[in-house]
Amino acid sequence: MARKDRRRFLTGFVAASAATAIAPPLARGAEEELAQNTRAPSALPPNAHIAAAETQTPSELAPSRIGGVPGSDFMVDVIKTLGIKYCPSNCASSYRGIHESLINYGGNKMPEFLTCMHEESAVAMGHGYFKIAGKPLMTLCHGTVGLQHAAMAIYNAWCDRVPMIVIGGNELDASTRPPGVPTFHSAQDINALVRDFTKWDDTPVSLDHFAQSFVRAYKIAMTPPYGPVMISLDAGLQQEPMKEHGGEKPVIPRYVPTAPPQGDSGAVKEAARLLAQAQNPVIVADRAARTPNGVTLLVQLAELLQARVIDQGGRMNFPRTHYLSAPPTVVSGADVILGLELSDFWATVNSYTDNGENGGVGSNGTRIKRDTKLISISSVDLNTKANYQDFQRFQVIDVPMAADAEATLPALIEAVKQAGPNKAALEKRAEAAKKAHAEGQERAKQAAAVAWDASPISTARLCMEIFGAVRLLDWSLVASEGNVSNWPNRLWPIDKHYQWLGRSGGYGVGYGAPASVGAALANRDLGRFSVSIQSDGDLMYAPGVLWTAARHKIPLLAVMHNNRAYHQEVMHVQRLSNFRNRVANLGNDMGPVGTSIMNPDIEYHKLAESMGWWAKGPIKDPAQLGPALKEAVKVVQSGQPALLNVWTQPR
Amino acid sequence: MKMNVLLSSIRNCAKNLGFVAALLLAPLAFAAGSAEKGKTAFVQHGCWQCHGFAGQGGVTGPKLAPNPLPLETMSAFVRNTRGGMPPYQKAILSEADLADIHAYLSSQPKAPDYKGIPLLNP
């Protein structure tokens, strides 16, 4: 009923306005006066009506044509209670009401509108931003075409457990929506498009509803496991005036954060018993450290047990410099494995070989001892959906806990202390771990030295040249897309939460460039230096984000890992050709047809320059990389983004 | 879990036996290859994709150079592998090309000692 009332009002208002514009009473009066004075001079002094018509603001353009406070102004009031700093978005008419309110009524602060050139870029900027700031951003988009652009980035955020508030403009009322484009850009239920990979969605039909809906959306997104949420925002609700509420605005609910779910006390006690009694416990962490405190807690637990820690890199969970930091292979000797927020426990303890066997699907094998006990603490168990299979293959777990790992660690640490690990065993494990860590570091360095002077530049040389250029700064590696043989994690002394941000989550390519810009935006506000290793294929999905970085003065050093191919696919097609005993058709390229990015080579440095970046390249000689990096670092320190186009080895 | 381990062990044994048998049956003498031709063949046959242009290796494939496996061993592996690397049978990689690739890998310079590289000792 509320919708019909509002629509009737709007229809009447539009009709009245149209009539006013076509046949204004003032104009009719002037004609009659002229007809009665046929012999009058051709130029008469204007009467009051004519003078008013010529010089004053037409009535239909009065200061508040809608006859009240726009509903979208109140929406801005709601948004401002949540301290959302930025709103990266690609502009669209279906949210023009709230757009206008944000920049005019809201003063374009908290949130500040950031001009984006693709909805995918806008969402991925929010993704990268959250990983540094720990606070979500919101984005606005057309509810249909814009949301379709945004969808892949929303999926990445879902898989990576990152909160994001997505608002899609929509003209719900089919009887009043403008014809043409606004109709193509409307749907009955825009949220359906992303419902399978958002935590929650809503379609508010009143301003009170919006207030509750937005605060609820924020609260759900920010309760672990984090995730994106979606609100369909009716254009009419944005544009129409607020209704009277006895002279008061609708109520804005107060946001109170929800405490994250902790593991069951009995399960925590059993896990502690197993870990304390283990001869060789191993901890595996993927998205365990939601905050810097998560790293501190994990170090505490690992040292308490002298357990080696495999950091799978979904977040920076454990310092690479710590002697307990270990490679994935150490699971083979474990008798107890504690998995913390693992996205794939099955692949942690099993191997899969893509060798064409078993009817072409590859072969599997276990990587652990037969009696190894498995413990899992994962909040993802609380938030699964049927359609998308990001929860991976089924793995039997001995002690599974549907809980947030970071929130459970304090209780687990206390329980392990009470269980009392064997001190002699602890000392022995510590000694072995120190030796293994030192030997591992030496092996990695020697491996990095191979092909040190090669051209194209080796990925080890690329990474160590970058590190050499930023090591004395408060650096943050904001993205490392396009596989560089994991050199940063093997050789960089990553020991702070913001020095490694993990990857995209859903492996939707195109994340790296915009997520880097978003993370660099957060780092800019914190005074940190942002650097990314930017792959070629990733950049070309939506390169317009380079312009957004320049436009909004976001300093970022992007060093390209330009191997001139979608290299993962190069290897896939080659592999299948071999399994089928066929020579791979390379066409005129180096990789199988359809996988190379060459002929012509893309001049990424020119692309970046055209969008306001300082840029240089292509750099093929490793000796030129260090000096170019020095120049680029200075540019970034001055507040500008800089890009180096570096031709690299494939991996 | 037990059955998985057993099956996996049987598979691994079978793979190893196949590899050893292939190694024993491999011709004892291979024609000497050309490093120059081998450089081209290394790219044309896609070896660079996982091992790098210099055979330096990476997360996708082990280091091949310098000091590659003996040609006979390499040939037996390349023809019969059932591991992560896809096999190259003679129909797609000739003996001559394989020998050239081996020569190319053998020609790669020895890696410098990392202790002499400042960037690896920050």
Q: What does it look like?
A:
The complex is a heterodimer of chains A (about 650) and B (about 120). With about 650 residues, chain A is an alpha/beta fold. In chain A, about 40% of the residues lie in helices and about 15% in strands. In chain A, the strands form 5 sheets. Chain A has a 6-stranded parallel beta sheet. A 5-stranded parallel beta sheet of chain A has the order 15-16-17-19-18, with helices on both faces. In chain A, strand 5 (about 200), helix 9 (about 205-220) and strand 6 (about 230-235) form a beta-alpha-beta unit. Chain A starts with a helix and ends in a 5-residue tail after the last strand. Chain B is mostly helical and about 120 residues long. Chain B has 5 helices and no strands. Chain B has helices at about 1-25, 35-45, 45-50, 70-80, 95-105. The longest helix of chain B is centred in the N-terminal third of the chain and has 24 residues, at about 1-25. The radius of gyration of chain B is 17 Å and the shape is globular. The termini of chain B are far apart. At the A-B interface, strand 12, helix 16, helix 17 and helix 22 of A face helix 1 and helix 3 of B.
Layout of secondary structure:
The complex is a heterodimer of chains A (651) and B (122).
Chain A: H1 2-22, H2 25-36, H3 48-55, H4 71-80, E1 86-89, H5 96-105, E2 112-115, H6 119-133, E3 138-142, H7 145-159, E4 164-170, H8 181-184, E5 200-202, H9 207-221, E6 228-234, H10 235-239, H11 265-277, E7 281-285, H12 292-305, E8 308-311, E9 325-326, E10 336-340, H13 345-349, E11 350-353, H14 357-360, E12 363-366, E13 373-377, E14 399-401, H15 405-419, H16 423-449, H17 459-470, E15 475-480, H18 487-491, H19 512-526, E16 529-535, H20 536-539, H21 545-551, E17 557-561, H22 567-579, H23 604-610, E18 614-619, H24 622-637, E19 642-646
Parallel strand pairs in A: 1-2, 3-4, 4-6, 5-6, 7-8, 7-10, 8-9, 10-13, 13-14, 15-16, 16-17, 17-19, 18-19
Antiparallel strand pairs in A: 11-12
Helix pairs in contact in A: 4-5, 4-9, 6-7, 6-19, 11-15, 12-15, 17-24, 19-21
Chain B: H1 2-25, H2 35-44, H3 47-51, H4 71-80, H5 95-106
